[in-house]
Amino acid sequence: MVALVHKNVKHIWDVKDRRFCHPGLDTSNDWTKTFSMYFEYWVIPSECDPNKTLLENRMYTLSNYFEMACVAGPWSADTIFDGQLKSKYKNLCAACDNPAGCYSDDKYHGREGALLCLTEDVGDIAWVRLDDTLVHFKDEQVDKRNYNYLCPDGGTRPLEYDKPCVWLSKPWPVIVASSQIAEKVSRTMNLLKNATFGWETSVLQLMEGYHISPVSTENLETPEDYLRRFPGFMSANNRVTCRPSRRVQWCVASNLEERKCRWLREASVVYGVEPPISCIQEINRASCLDALRSRRADIFVARTEELLQARKKGLKPIIYALSNKKQELNRIAAVVKHDSKFRSLRDLEGAAKACFAGYESVGWNAFVSTMRNASAEKWGCQDTQAVAKFFKDSCVFGLTDQDRSELPANLYSLCKQGEKRDKRMHARRRDRSEREIRANTMCTDANGRHCTRPLNSHASLSRQCDTRCVNAL
Description:
This is Transferrin. The chain has 18 helices and 13 strands. It is of the alpha/beta class. The chain has four domains: 2-161, Periplasmic binding protein-like II (D-Maltodextrin-Binding Protein, domain 2, 3-Layer(aba) Sandwich), CATH 3.40.190.10; 181-229, no CATH class; 248-313, D-Maltodextrin-Binding Protein, domain 2 (3-Layer(aba) Sandwich); 331-418, Periplasmic binding protein-like II (D-Maltodextrin-Binding Protein, domain 2, 3-Layer(aba) Sandwich). It starts with a strand and ends with a strand.
């Protein structure tokens, strides 16, 4: 990425109160938020008004710094909020071909549009890709003498010298392998170049159409050394927009969930997702709901059967998955033996023994809802009392000691035979979790902070601590 300026802009401090040409905030595989915001993060002091969202702080900063700009296309996926921001910060669309619209089809939107904005003398500064710049100036026969590269050191360099000042580069995707099998992987990839069918073509499709260019295995680079060859990339994701940094506290209830949360956090940083995610672990899922209620956590991925309990705690869903295909929907059924005398739900009343996967689980709630709709006022207000009255005996799995002290005894009267097995299962899970926690080695990350890393029995302690440490304490 390069910053192009008119020749009358001599230094980086001349940029303020000028006209800015920006490709747009909408992202794609090769145009992430990190690339979009890199120039302004380094040049413009960030605003951190706690009463504004991070996006509005960004637009407010741009609006105050530049006289006008063209930042066409969507600013937010929320069309209402997008319209509100564009009405509030109109000068960020004032340099567009259609300022009133500021849409994605604007003449000055996108990679080519930002260059046209500059070379048609609408703007003074453009944040663009170097390869697009070279093609544009050649195809449009633009006089290079009228433009300069703006350099990260604050100075400028004539465009006609063909020695660009690169602010940020994106590395090509690579295949990463351990040193023990790198040569074998390299030979395999060489064979794939001429593949026309079979599993080899499937591998090529996974490569997303990238051209395979094998490298020598004699002097292999580490991933970190490879990335350091690209200016600005290693530091691009380390910018803190506001201090103190805003974070989304994501509650998890197991070691596996915590690892998944860390993976998601690291991926979100690469794609410029803000605010960043912070993973906090509680002892169980019920504790996560309590953490949300007490504001120690912000979000939690709840199971369907936990929604009722969540609502009782004053919580609400902000997003949920919904299938468009009927065959993919979950179906709830009441199952009896093939030779059972029971033929309808009404036959179960007073005689049947029931088994539920959990209290207020999907099955429990489906049964209660069905019976309430069928029985109207006869069902009663207390679901637990109604279920206990409907069935002779039951086993509702997963009840705590507190639940049992509050619920009718016949809701768990059939569970006694399975209690010992259930306790053994929970004990095994607890022991496994404790072993996972103990199976960590202490390391120090690049900033000198102590942290833990899962112990790998196949690697030495020093080898593990050479790799990037996670889960800083």
